[in-house]
Amino acid sequence: MKTGDDCIAINNGSSFINISDVFCGPGHGISVGSLGKDKKYATVEHVHVKNCTFNGTSNGARIKTFDGGSGYVRNITYEDIILVGVKHPVIIDQFYDPKYIDNVGQAVEVSDVTYLNIRGTSLDKNAIELNCDTIVDVPCLSQNSSVIRY
C-alpha cells in the first residue's frame, strides 16, 4: 500500500479492529489517531495489528494524540512487524501537532499497549519514541503496559 499519509488510520470510536498482512510503504505507517484535536473526547480500543511490513515509511507502529484532548487509547497490540528502513519504527506522541500545544491539564490516556516481535531497521538512532505529556495526571502508558516484549 503506497500512500502520502497513514497507510491505515484507526480513528475515534474504533474498537475491536484486526489488521493483518499489510505491506505499507511508502507512507506514514499504521496509526492509532490522531485523537483529541480541539480538546475533544476520543476513544480507540482493542486493536490488533499483526504480520505487517513497513518498507521505507516515515513511521511504523504509531499512536498520535493532540495535547488538550481527553479520552483513551487502550488494549493496542502490534505483533510480528517487519521494519525495512523506517525512520520512526515505534512512536507514541501525545503532542502530535505542535501548533495545538496549550497545556490545559488534560490528555488522551494511552494504556495497555503491547509490541511483540518487532524487528528490522531504523533510520533514526532512536527506534522507540515516547513523547508523553508530563504535565497532566493522565499517563502516556499505564503501569500495565508493555512497551517492548520479545
How is this structure best described in words?
The chain has a single domain (8-149), classed as Single-stranded right-handed beta-helix, Pectin lyase-like (Pectate Lyase C-like). Helix content is 0%, strand content 57%. The protein is built from no helices and 11 strands. It has strands at residues 8-10, 14-20, 23-24, 30-35, 41-55, 59-65, 70-86, 88-93, 109-122, 128-131, 146-149.
Quick summary:
With 150 residues, this protein is mostly beta strands. Helix content is 0%, strand content 57%.
Outline the secondary-structure elements.
Elements: E1 8-10, E2 14-20, E3 23-24, E4 30-35, E5 41-55, E6 59-65, E7 70-86, E8 88-93, E9 109-122, E10 128-131, E11 146-149
Parallel strand pairs: 1-4, 2-5, 3-5, 4-6, 5-7, 6-8, 7-9, 8-10, 9-11
- The total of beta strands comes to 11
Note the run of SSEs as H and E: EEEEEEEEEEE
**How many separate domains make up the residues?**
1
Q: Termini separation (Å)? A: 27 Å
Structural class: mainly beta
Name the average pLDDT: 89
Oligomer: single chain
Task: Specify the CATH architecture.
Answer: 3 Solenoid
Percent of residues in helices: under 10%
> What sort of overall outline do the alpha carbons produce when their principal axes are compared?
globular
Here the CATH topology equals Pectate Lyase C-like
Structure annotation, total helices: 0
For this structure, what is the CATH class?
A: Mainly Beta
Largest sheet: 6 strands, parallel
CATH evolutionary superfamily: Single-stranded right-handed beta-helix, Pectin lyase-like
